[in-house]
Write a structure and sequence with these properties.
2 domains, 10 helices
Length: 294
């Protein structure tokens, strides 16, 4: 019964100090929106890294003046290796066509690109479980063949991508801490002002024999409602922005990365809202402890 009474008084407090609470919620929405954007970016980068780390691939770029006999000999050697499951020759013309298909580029725009931007290559699919050391040995051996310009194993790229993801996770963690501080500060100050506006009401309640928990309850609930409302609105706005931009960038990103973008996991969204409620309650309690002498 006491919880319903606290909810009723919290509702009345929101109505009486509506402008104060709206300003606080708007400020928190911006903070949670920044956090959600960071989490969404890390989520999709992690999926890309996971997908690419499972792909065993190597590209052998050929010289422009490479002879057909040299290319045929190289293909024969590569196909004889047990570590290589597939060898595909991509000519310079075919490379241009694939680039145009993946980026939806018009023929006029494609014609403006230099021809040497699309070298011929051999695309190699490696068997599962090939050690990195063995891949490097194969690359070094292939590099010595006539007609080979460069061999790309993508090992350094994967290392840079993992470093980028680690940095993104660290940044998201730091941003989470900043959001916690922001929630504590905004809700604490809001509740402090609400207490000042209702000082006379509090004094009357105490004179009537109200307990400390009875007086504090509505203010704690107001802090929780502020945090939950702000975090929920931020997640909804982020989803709307994601849905609006998804159709425009999905095809290009999928062509470039081979991975479809996704929104935040529902558990991540619920966890963010639950954490916001907890921090909101803490912010209210700390503010009441300092400014509400009952």
């Amino acid at each position: 019964m006491e919880i319903w009474s606290a909810l009723s008084r919290a509702k009345r407090g929101f109505r009486d100090d509506l402008r104060l609470h709206v300003v606080a919620i708007a400020s928190l929405v911006v903070a949670f929106l920044c956090l959600g954007t960071a989490l969404l970016s890390v989520e999709n980068l992690t999926r890309i890294a996971s997908r690419w780390s499972q792909t065993q691939h190597m590209t052998v770029y050929l010289r422009d003046q490479a002879k057909e006999a040299d290319v045929a000999q190289l293909r024969l050697v590569l196909e004889s290796l047990g570590e290589i499951s597939k060898v595909e020759h991509i000519s310079a013309v075919r490379a241009r066509e694939l680039f145009a298909e993946q980026t939806n580029m018009s023929s006029a725009d494609l014609a403006q690109l230099p021809t040497d931007a699309f070298p011929a290559s051999l695309e190699l699919d490696l068997a599962d479980g090939v050690p990195s050391a063995r891949i490097e040995k194969i690359a070094a051996r292939v590099q010595r063949f006539a007609g080979v310009e460069e061999v790309e194993t993508y090992r350094s790229f994967f290392g840079q991508l993992r470093s980028l993801i680690d940095a993104g996770r660290s940044g998201a963690l730091l941003l989470s801490l900043l959001v916690v501080v922001c929630v504590l500060a905004v809700i604490g100050n809001t509740i402090r002002l609400a207490v000042a506006n209702r000082r006379r009401e509090i004094e009357v309640l105490k004179l009537c024999g109200a307990t400390d928990s009875f007086v504090r309850g509505p203010f704690v609930l107001e802090g929780v409602i502020q945090a939950v409302t702000a975090s929920t609105l931020a997640m909804l706005l982020l989803f709307v922005a994601y849905a609006a931009l998804h159709g425009h960038v999905e095809s290009t990103l999928t062509a470039l990365t081979g991975v479809r973008t996704v929104f935040l996991n529902p558990l991540t969204v619920l966890g963010t809202i639950a954490a916001a409620a907890f921090v909101g309650a803490i912010g209210s309690a700390l503010s009441l402890r300092r400014y509400l002498q009952v």
